[in-house]
């Protein structure tokens, strides 16, 4: 099985857009659009409750060897946060909001809150739904020991709040001799150039990534490449990456088909937004075109069994089903299944849902084949009768007076 580990969050909250379906964390939270507490603030409320109840461990199972972690083992980087003007401003807003939510006698000291804020910032996982959209924020005590790589060995997927750690290599066998903390995941979006990835990692996690991919100058040059001047050439025009390039890129996005190479990460990102917008607008043809175009681009940058590839194949299959093109849909759904088996695991609810979609597709294909066969049989029956009638008519005409008259004439 591709699953390495699974863990329920020690503490988590769901996003504001889903909040109305669940109970309030605290009756003192006033649900007003402009004053609604952020995910981080509400997660701090959860953590305070956990600490007051002396709950320090989470429900975790793993095939690899690992060191069981508690809340106190999490890193906070509070010294770096204290020097970060942006983060200290966020922390001040959190403290102000917490005073309105938590009773004064239960509110921890500022130093403890700073530690808590840092642990959420450094160790928090964004919980994703089946479409890989943000659905919440959680602390997973044991999965938080995984280090970052821009070319990761594993990926974390979610089924509700439950997290699954899966390998991205189907040939990689996890045993008790495998050490969990030696496995890697990506903390940031992988379809981006090195400069942006490093900037995001440093601003959030306070380190500069020096992984193998960040040292690959060739791949990074492709990620920021322009189209070759020769319109018939599939090659890339390499440019020097400078700070003002990103400003220029924003101006060129509207003309990206003319200027940006198909594998340019900015073009891919915008292409993704176009796909979402087309789907929301009900433009199925345009959506299909975009998502099919994205397949090769995702496969270039991502591991073979990355969940984004699985979801993209599934989306294309679903769109073909909406167009009643079930044979084509089935081919994409089966491709999704081959990837999702490793990216999500066979126990994941999305994998089970995908199986039901494949079953429905096969059923529709069988129904269509039966109707086609039945229709062909009916046409053969209809075609036989006119030929028999024609023979009888010919026989009659040979013995009719009119026929003799015509022959005589």
UniProtKB/TrEMBL annotation:
Q: Name one GO biological process term.
A: methylation
Residue ranges with Basic and acidic residues bias? 399-409
Q: One GO cellular component term, please give it.
A: nucleus
**Swiss-Prot/TrEMBL keywords:** Methyltransferase, Transferase
Q: What is this protein called?
A: Histone-lysine N-methyltransferase SMYD3
InterPro entries cross-referenced by the UniProt entry? H3K4_H4K5_MeTrfase, SET_dom_sf, TPR-like_helical_dom_sf
| A molecular function GO annotation | methyltransferase activity
């Amino acid at each position: 099985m591709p699953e390495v580990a699974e863990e329920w969050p020690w503490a988590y909250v769901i996003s504001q857009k889903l909040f109305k379906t669940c109970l309030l964390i605290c009756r003192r939270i006033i649900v007003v659009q402009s004053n609604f507490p952020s995910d981080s603030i509400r997660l701090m409320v959860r953590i305070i409750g956990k600490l007051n109840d002396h709950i320090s461990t989470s429900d975790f199972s793993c095939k690899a060897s690992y060191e069981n972690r508690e809340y106190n083992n999490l890193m906070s980087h509070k010294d770096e946060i204290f020097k970060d003007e942006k983060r200290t401003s966020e922390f001040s807003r959190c403290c102000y909001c917490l005073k309105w939510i938590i009773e004064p006698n239960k509110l921890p000291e500022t130093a403890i809150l700073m530690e808590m804020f840092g642990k959420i910032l450094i160790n928090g996982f964004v919980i994703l739904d089946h479409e890989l959209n943000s659905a919440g924020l959680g602390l997973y005590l044991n999965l938080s020991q995984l280090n970052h790589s821009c070319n990761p060995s594993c990926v974390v997927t979610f089924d509700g709040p439950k997290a699954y750690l899966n390998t991205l290599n189907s040939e990689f066998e996890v045993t008790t001799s495998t050490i969990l903390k030696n496995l890697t995941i990506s903390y940031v979006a992988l379809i981006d150039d090195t400069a942006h990835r490093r900037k995001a990692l440093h601003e959030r996690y306070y380190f500069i990534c020096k992984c193998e991919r960040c040292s690959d100058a060739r791949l990074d040059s492709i990620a920021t490449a322009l189209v070759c001047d020769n319109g018939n050439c599939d090659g890339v025009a390499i440019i020097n990456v400078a700070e003002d390039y990103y400003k220029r890129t924003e101006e060129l996005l509207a003309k990206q088909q003319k200027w940006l190479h198909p594998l340019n990460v900015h073009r891919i990102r915008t292409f993704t937004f176009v796909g979402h917008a087309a789907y929301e607008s009900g433009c199925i043809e345009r959506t299909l075109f975009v998502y099919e175009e994205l397949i090769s681009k995702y496969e270039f940058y991502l591991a073979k069994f990355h969940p984004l590839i699985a979801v993209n194949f599934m989306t294309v299959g679903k769109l073909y089903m909406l167009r009643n093109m079930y044979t084509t849909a089935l081919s994409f759904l089966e491709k999704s299944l081959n990837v999702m088996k490793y990216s999500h695991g066979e126990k994941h609810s999305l994998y089970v849902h995908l199986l039901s979609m494949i079953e429905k597709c096969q059923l529709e294909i069988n129904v269509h084949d039966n109707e086609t066969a039945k229709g062909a049989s009916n046409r053969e029956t209809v075609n036989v009768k006119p030929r028999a009638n024609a023979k009888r008519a010919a026989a009659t005409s040979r013995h009719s007076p009119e026929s003799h008259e015509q022959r005589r004439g």
